[in-house]
Amino acid sequence: MTGPQLRAILILPANVLGTIPLGLLWWEGGLPPRLALPGAALIAGACFAVGIGLMATTIRLFHEQGRGSLAPWSPTRELVVRGPYRHVRNPMISGVLFNLAGEALAFGSPAIGVWFGIVLLANALYIPLWEEPGLEKRFGDAYRRYQAHVPRWLPRLWPWPPAPPNSVPPGTSA
User: Fold this and answer.
1) Quick check: helix, strand or coil at residue 126?
2) Is residue 38 one of the residues assigned to a domain?
3) What are the tens digits of pLDDT across the range 54-81?
């Protein structure tokens, strides 16, 4: 893992999923936090498994395929359209949201539930207003084609099969 990647992880997910939720738990009644009912803990565990899996996979893909990091100040240099990106355009944020939902359930924390809503709203605004125009500018038609076939939030059931880099799109001539 490179310096920019590690720095991005320590600044973004570590604060969104660690520092801020710990502060909220302290504000709600101190630490150590109480654990929720066993049923909620099972659902929370499933949320953590999905969230951590998505985050680990996307961070690896950003590094290996995208040659960059998850941070806006150190973006990928290549468009990433493998793995979970063939189903949904924002699996990293989905992973973060799954983890926050897991934290809110595991600790029975309404404050973390509100934080989940704030993170969701912030990304619902940031992604279409800032991130997607930047991706369109950097990757042009390749990103527009990807955007037309892969949804922003709700995953496709079947993976999108991106065209090979030098192929001609259907309905056009070489």
Assistant:
1) helix
2) yes
3) 999 998 998 898 887 777 777 889 999 9
